Amino acid sequence: MIRGIIGALVGREIDRRDGSGGLKGAAIGLVASRVLSRMGPLGLALGGAYVAKKAYDRRRDTRRNTTI
Predict the structure, then answer these.
(1) What is the pTM of this model?
(2) pLDDT digits (tens, 9 = 90+) for 21-48
(3) Residues 45, 3, 55, CA angle at the centre, nearest 5°?
(4) CA distance 32 to 56
(5) Which of 37, 47, 57, 64 would bridge with 6, disulfide CB 3.0–4.6 Å?
(6) Can you give the residue ranges of every domain in the chain?
């Protein structure tokens, strides 16, 4: 279950960079979740850290009233 959640969040973050449709993000999230789960606990920690860093940066930018 955690693998699916982290995969979806990673896919969403990657898809936000180019701003195109959601199907590409879903596919990347699926692949990312498989790769991260094959790496074991370290992979899940890396995926979670990536999503947390992106969320932190977005919050910091919102507080400064600048968006990318």
Answers:
(1) 0.60
(2) 667 777 777 787 788 778 888 887 887 8
(3) 55
(4) 21
(5) 47
(6) 2-63
